[in-house]
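Fresh eyes needed here. Have a critical look at this protein's tokenised backbone.
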Amino acid sequence: MTWSIIARDPSGAYGVAVASKFFAVGAICPHGEGGVGALSTQALPNPLWGYRGMRLLREGMAAQAVVDHVTKPDAGAEQRQFHVHDANGGIAVHTGARVATHAQTGEVLVSSTVKDLVAGSGLSFQDRGMQRLKGIPDEWRLFAVAQ
């Protein structure tokens, strides 16, 4: 299992943190460039998503357009996760079928771990209760990021 989080400070600098059981995850999952944007790809990642996504962000493409452009042609997209932050503050997420069955259209779901990591960010969350996630043991409490 891999977890990642992206943050941006007021100067426009980005940070991407990744935790995983896989070796060398830092060479594949996190990508970022100050003033341009940042992204992370995980859950059977396609290494090309990061390089393509960053190229599109450098060209000024919005986060949601980057996600759409990168994920749609990939037959394995339902096995992957991808989140993108653009330089204008836009955020977009793609989550494969594992979590998507629990989310409403356009909704971003996170675990309590992610919710705790972003404490103080100003984000608010709605509790979606305990859920079973495909391929992951036990139940996990999920939260929807409030818009």
In short: Residues 1-95 form a domain with the Glutamine Phosphoribosylpyrophosphate, subunit 1, domain 1 fold (CATH 3.60.20.10). The first strand starts at residue 2 and ends at 8. The beta strands are 2-8, 14-20, 30-33, 37-42, 81-86, 91-95, 109-111, 125-132, 139-145. Residues 8 and 14 are 4 Å apart (CA to CA).
